Amino acid sequence: MKLQTPEHAQPAHGLAAQAARPVICYPVGGLQGPDITAIRAARPGWERRLSVLVPPREARCFDVGAGEFLRISCVGGPQVGDLNLWNAANLKERFFSGKTRALHGTHLSTGDRMWSSLPYLRAMATITEDTLDWYGFDGFGGAVHDVIGTRCDPYTHNLLSGGQYHHCCHSNLSRALAARLGLSVQEAEFHVHDVLNVFMCTGFTRDTGQYFMKASPVRPNDFIEFFAEIDLLGALSACPGGDCSTAHSSDGAACHPLLVEVFRPLAAPLGWVPSPANGYDRSHGP
After folding, report:
1. pTM
2. How far is CA 129 from CA 71, 86, 157, in A?
3. H or E element at residue 47
4. Would the pLDDT of 4 be above 80?
């Protein structure tokens, strides 16, 4: 535990340092944003190609082709989910939550993109609609759909509570990916990575800076929708914390399924092309 009281006195420049204005690390003004209007215009007449119900405390894999739409919906009751995305042809390219956070902020919503890992660093998916966008940031600093948490895992659970709990999202995702790819669970878990916490309401406490969760505002018929910028393999875990109002990983929390649907439009959005890999030449200098 970190000390609650500093051990060192404030130096002469301390007040000035605290008063210095922040600078945005990654200004995105020059980043070409998605044309949400054009993407949404491709939805009328779309065909539902795939429907997968993710059971409580379990995970399922699914494919989303470039140019298709992925929708994750709340059904039955309030429930959060942990989402992993990979390049369907190359598991080394996967969702990079840290860079996505640096570019878009701690929580994602309509117009934000999910970016892939280095050296690829390209848009994997664009959020096209979010029925929880009304929530914004609450008085505690909480918001929905975070990229600040990791995913609940049995290693941290063992570290803090002891025991062997097998339905943390890390394990759920590992089992689902192993079944999909014919790998052992131990092999598959190396491909599981930090997630988009779908529907989860989280933030950092203002006094201690600790990661917190609170009851998700999600209700049946709420959804978040994505447009796939490349061919994707996805996996979604219905978290054992349910709506994360009290427990993080528990067989006692009320849990509900999540619905994954993939829609194929009649035609690609006007002017859209699949996202190319990053243009850096990878020489890294002399």
Report:
1. 0.96
2. 9, 21, 34
3. strand 47-54
4. no
